[in-house]
Amino acid sequence: MSAAAKYGSDNVSLWTPSATGSEALSSDVVAWIDAEDTDKMTTRVDGDHTYIVTINDKINDISFGAPANYHVPRFSNGSDSLLINNRNTLHFWETSQQSTPDSALTASVDAFDGHLAENNDPRYAFFVYKPMDYYAGGNFLYQYGKGQTAKGYGLAMWVTGSSLTNTSHYYYMAHWGGGKAYYLDESDHDTVYYNKGGVPNLVYHQHNGTSGYISHDGNQTAASYSSTTLTTNNFDQDLELWIGEEISGGGRGIEFLLAEMIMITGSGFSDADRQRVEGYLAHKWGLTADLASNHPYKSSAPTNGLSAGGNGPVFGNDVGRKLSIEPGNGRRGGPVSKRFKNINSNYGKKDGIEQVPFALQQPGPFSLKRRASAYKVTRGDKK
Known about the structure:
By secondary structure, the protein is mainly β. Helices cover 4% and strands 31% of the residues. The protein has one helix and 24 strands. It has a 16-stranded antiparallel beta sheet that branches. A hairpin with a 4-residue loop joins strand 23 and strand 24. The radius of gyration is 21 Å and the shape is globular. The relative contact order is 0.17. The model is unreliable at 176-182, 184-191, 309-350, 352-364 and 370-375 (pLDDT under 50).
């Protein structure tokens, strides 16, 4: 079975974090792992399985690989049983019981230093995944910071049973280290917040100021805490980011399918921003049923304000002319974000200006050449 076309590739007006058009977020995306973006991964085939050798973050192009003594995740590669909404995933698989290292991903130490929220900085995270199997106790989906008491932050489940049911486990934000688990309400360790067992979950959690909350269904239900000051990493020089395990390992992994992970920082992140990202993820991964009936993107996916169609000149009559587009320079190349060093554009007109039909993320320079009926975009000075 072949997976669906990459989201947005057949409809350039769909909003994504890299094709925001006139609907840019008010805070920065600082890390983004997308399992359907094969351009960001290298793979190998061994027997009946395809394995991820490396996968790169889509914002900073930081590479993830398996930690020492761990296996790399498998890539679904169109395998029906591992797809979510007919889209590819990463399969974090378990070969044995918990407490034995299995599959995980991590970036090099300090690769995300200066990108991820530290200390008590605001942070917002979206995590789309499907749990497959786990064991009693702590099961980590991701964690970053330092593996010491009060210096790690992430997402985990505490499992009180051994089956994929809605009543055997609950989420907590993994403020873990030295035997301390940071539950949703630290004063009440009996606070439960059940996930949906055995099916895809769209989990959102945030911390801003001294309060935070977590939800798995488009914020229809949420558990919250207040009066808590975080000390994530405390600006230590050895920041780590692990996916599928706790910092530095320890056998607290979980078997699951990872679809997408988006991390944002900045105090300006609004409810409208959150809803836009929720809408994008829900429509992409087939989770619109999790959105409330009054969610602005319940019925239709968010768009970027750009329209498809049109066949006019770009920046004047430039047929056969080559334009150089430098990162962070929008004078000739359309809107370029200094933060993402990308160009978000497409066929059609916006505000009467013809748009260029491409969306690029890698730093330039890029060369744009108009043909009679299309455009050719190359990197560097290639013809």
